[in-house]
Design goal:
By secondary structure, the protein is of the alpha/beta class. It has 16 helices and 18 strands.
Length: about 375
């Protein structure tokens, strides 16, 4: 796992700086499951102050030399499709590049130029147009249900439909079209494969279940399934964390669909763009923050930091866990035994005292953590 942490642990950010877009995610940790364009997404998050955990869930394996792709291309040339469904930009570009390598690029473009071309989203549309072709329709919500409804209304009985596959065979797509009377040609351009190193993904599962990340980003639906498979026996715990404390942020509705199927609340931008995804996270995470008035000070809890009177105070996991426990019942005294429950298994009451001491040092503001003799600690009003 690669962790990219902006700034030193003792960095203090002023209230004026926190108001700037560059610091809008300061104090938050965000997991990135993307492989392709992961550095771009991580850079956008870091530029706004976030700590990023890179954990690719899948990798794309091109199959330009695959016999199945060549056979599908030949099938399209021998029996030109009436309708072509382009699912992804990378898939469309890969198909045309492979065809060029076989000397079939121009004949394929000629066939596609005569077809009714459906682009599943903006990336697919951009790839189509960059190839000198023209799409005729695109579903507003980018879902296959919309595509099936649209094509059904047009009437596809007796027509040939070519589907550029989205990383793996999608029998539900093929069956829906065939049941409406179409002949379907599946075009496999690339496939999903597990990451070369699975350790970062397993580590991200641990961080999610322990609530040590504030959000997880997804840029493809298959990445959701890969994360759940990586969770294994922890799958239920991971889903519970995503339903409650950890924000699931998806680039679009197609990516979000599997999580919604598990009753996980999801945020997604109106347009499937990485920059829009980041803006959605910037809007959402601060709304979830805990805000308190403590001993005349304004205290805000973010993922791995507290903001005291406008100054960001990064905290280690144990002090942060103690602060969250106290903030959950402001004004109420929590005993060392109660606070011990917030710390990792195996800790003792001495660890609680050490965490409180580190918390006080990290907050650098007297009076926020109050000791109640022989009883415990509290956040005074």
């Amino acid at each position: 796992m690669t962790e990219r942490t902006p700034g030193a642990r003792r960095t203090v950010i002023t209230a004026a700086a926190l108001a700037e877009p560059a610091a809008s995610l300061s104090g938050y940790t965000i997991g990135v499951t993307a492989d392709r364009r992961r550095d771009e997404l991580a850079g956008l998050l870091e530029s706004r102050g976030a700590r990023v955990v890179l954990a690719p869930a899948l990798r794309i394996v091109p199959i330009a030399d695959d016999a199945e792709l060549r056979a599908a291309t030949r099938a399209c040339l021998d029996s030109p499709p009436d309708i072509v469904l382009v699912n992804t930009g990378i898939g469309m570009r890969g198909w045309l590049e492979a065809a060029d390598g076989w000397g079939l690029g121009e004949p394929l473009r000629a066939v596609l130029s005569r077809a009714y071309v459906v682009a599943r989203g903006p990336k697919a549309r951009a790839a189509i147009r960059s190839a000198g072709l023209q799409d005729q329709w695109s579903p507003e919500g980018e879902s296959f249900d919309e595509v099936a409804e649209h094509l059904g209304a047009r009437g596809i009985a007796g027509l040939t439909v070519a589907i550029q596959l989205h990383g793996e065979s999608q029998p539900e797509y093929t069956e829906a079209l065939e049941s409406a009377g179409a002949r379907v040609i599946e075009v496999p351009v690339y496939r999903w494969a597990p990451p070369t190193d699975p350790a970062p993904l397993h580590r991200l599962v641990d961080l999610i279940t322990a609530r040590l990340v504030d959000a997880v980003t997804f840029t493809s639906a298959p990445a959701v399934g890969a994360l759940l498979r990586a969770a294994g026996a922890q799958c239920d715990a991971l889903l519970e964390a995503l339903r409650t404390d950890v924000l699931a942020a998806c680039v679009g509705p197609v990516t979000a669909a599997p999580l919604r199927g598990y009753d996980v609340p999801v945020v997604a931008p109106g347009r499937a763009r990485l920059s829009a995804l980041v803006r959605t996270i910037v809007d959402e995470l601060p709304r979830r923050a805990v805000n308190l008035e403590v001993s005349g000070h304004t205290l805000t809890l973010r993922g791995h930091a507290a903001i005291v009177d406008g100054e960001l105070r990064p905290l280690a996991p144990a002090p942060m866990a103690v602060l969250r426990a106290l903030a959950g019942v402001p004004g109420r005294v929590l005993s060392r035994a109660a606070l011990l429950q917030a710390l990792p298994r195996g800790a003792d009451e001495h660890a609680v005292e050490m965490a409180v001491a580190r918390l006080r040092a990290g907050l650098a503001t007297p009076g926020i953590i109050q000791t109640v003799v022989k009883r415990g600690y509290r956040l005074p009003s």
